[in-house]
Amino acid sequence: MSHPVISEFDIIFAGGGTTACVVAGRLAAWDPSLSILILEGGKHTLNQAAYVQPYRFASHFVPTSTTMTFNVGNPSPRLNGRAPIVRSAHCIGGGSSVNTMSYTRAAASDFDDWGSRWLETYEVLPDRPTHGYGGPIKVSYGGCKLGVTEEFIRVGTTYHKRKYVEDTDDLETCNTYSIRRYIDGTTGRRSDAAHHYVYNQAHNANLQIWVGKRVKRVIFQDKRAVGVEFTSDPVSCPDAGQSSSIVRASKLVVVSAGAFGSPVILERSGIGGCDIQQVVDLPGVGEKLSRDHNIVFLPYFCADGAITMDPLWRGEESVVQENMAQWKIDGKSLIAQNGTDAKIKWRPDDDELKAMGSAFQPRWKEFFQDRPDKAVAIFALSEGYAGPLSSILPPRNYLAAFYFTLYPASAGSVHIKLDENGQEGIDFNTGYLDDPSDIIPLNFGYKKMREIFRRMPSYRGEVPAGHPCFPEGSAAVCRENDRSVYTAEDDEAIDRYNRDCVQSTWHSLGTCAMKPRADQGVVDARLNVYGVTNLKVADMSIAPKNVGTNTYSTALLIGEKAAMIIADELGIECRPYNESS
To answer: What is the DSSP string of 477-491?
Structure first.
């Protein structure tokens, strides 16, 4: 079947997420004559309150959201038969436009020689050699610091016996408490890739963004990528019909649709281990969906007099308007807050390792013991609760504890599949908790966070529906006691609860891994897809191993590196960032 060819560009990006914005924006700034097209299934985010006002991030995670794609996994016995849902961004800017804005960077050993500091302006502390000070992405404390944060840090540094440091994101430090966010400290706006890499170049007519366009496949001529076929996105443009069009690329096609979208586009294009008009046999496509960080949220009641995010997240008009007025004046107030002010990148000490039991020891010795820059998990506080129970809880103040593992050993996969009617879906295995060592830090995290929260002055008890169902008569049952002693039955209840409730941190990666082809690699060190020409992949799907961080920082870094690679191949000079250019 032939489709109309509607235009031609030098470079086409299949996907308009974080990395695509970085690469396209850099190349457009370095060579404004380069014609660049970004095709994105979702909608624009330019200056829209839902994206630029930090406190509104929770609105993107509700079940009716159209800014997220809900990827439904296959039921898993490790999750007590549950079919987990993993969201991925569906808008210009991708995850940078809808994420929680938590700023963490991974250990230096995760990145090896990937390093780049062009991307950030670190507004927290001056003259730090591992941070950048002239980049487009701002990092700050955010709009204001809340009192319960001080309580959490005070308890953590005394009872939990870890220090507070101003910079735990220097690529080496862990096991300390800190605060940081991807929020502009001057404007109080979200610091995302869309506004700071592409929307600020609206004057360049050669950089085009077409929204509501779902890329079906890459078009080849003799294994050379020459364009893409796309349709109207059924979520963003439900009434537009599904006729296909083709747009051609004279120099390069870059697939940048994320850990879920990129392998599916490649498989539709005949690249992978499936049988769809196979162009190249690459069995690694869609495999090693590695190792999405596993997270659990725990709600607690908070003192009436404390300041939390709950009134804003509930939409209490008077509170929203009061904070909005201040935000418009100086970028401060709770509008410039994500509710997560404090975290610790946690490594267990000897006593904690012993308490975790023998089942974790092999994983500890093999992976963590001799890598002191690698944390096992992040423990963090949320000043307010916007989790799955929020719609049924009474309107009052809440706290939330959350803990997530940074290097789970389990891996999943994502592939396309056709049903009996020929309709396309995904065959998605999360792999969560398949490796028996992965549940252990979560079970320990429940206990440790519970004991920290019970020592906070603003603590007013646990929300029973959001905690394990302990056996009748158990000393661990929800109450405001100082410390719990857990029986084997209590431990089983915690394990069962975590399996019932563990979810994605939206940090999926690895499905188009950058490693040798013989080792199930999909792209080489210069992001070229094996077996074809003029086709690269640039997004979190290329990460060959896990990274111990909120992955926005890594997506930015991949974008910066990809831009330099492409510029080098096209003979374009790379220049330091200048947002006014």
So the answer is: SSS--S-----HHHH
User: Percentage of the chain surpassing pLDDT 70?
Assistant: 87
Residue 176's alpha-carbon distances to 147, 153, 448, 549, 565, in angstroms, are 19, 10, 15, 15, 36
CA angle 332, 334, 339 (to 5 degrees): 125
Provide the residue type at 412 as one letter. G
Mean pLDDT of 377-389: 91
Half-sphere exposure of 423 (CA within 13 A, CB side): 2
Percent of the chain beyond pLDDT 90? 63
- pLDDT recorded at residue 162: 85
Please say if the pLDDT value at position 81 is more than 80: yes
CATH (domain of 564): 3.50.50.60
Beta strands in 76-125 (DSSP E): 85-89, 120-122
Distance CA 320, CA 311 (A): 8
Measured from the Cβ of residue 368, the count of other Cβ atoms closer than 10 Å reads 18
Strand residue runs (E) in 303-356: 342-346
Within-domain flag for 127: no
Is residue 417 domain-shared with residue 366, that is, in the same domain? no
Name the catalytic one among 131, 415, 467, 507.
Answer: 507
Residue 182 covered by a domain: no
Is residue 116 pLDDT above 70, yes or no?
A: no
> Measuring CA to CA, which residue among 571, 572, 565 is closest to residue 524?
565
pTM to 2 decimal places? 0.90
Whether pLDDT at 514 is above 50: yes
Q: Among 482, 501, 520, identify where a domain stops.
A: 501
Domain count, the chain: 2
**pLDDT score at 330:** 93
pLDDT at residue 131 tops 60:
no
Respond yes or no: is residue 131 known to be catalytic. Answer: no
Element (H, E) at 95: helix 95-98
| Mean pLDDT value across the chain | 87
CA distance 92 to 98: 10
Sign of the CA dihedral 265, 268, 271, 275? Answer: positive
* Residue 396 clears pLDDT 80, i.e. is over it: yes
Tokens of 29: 């700034």
Q: Give the Cα separation of 172 and 66 in Å (integer).
A: 38
**Three-state DSSP class for residue 93:** coil
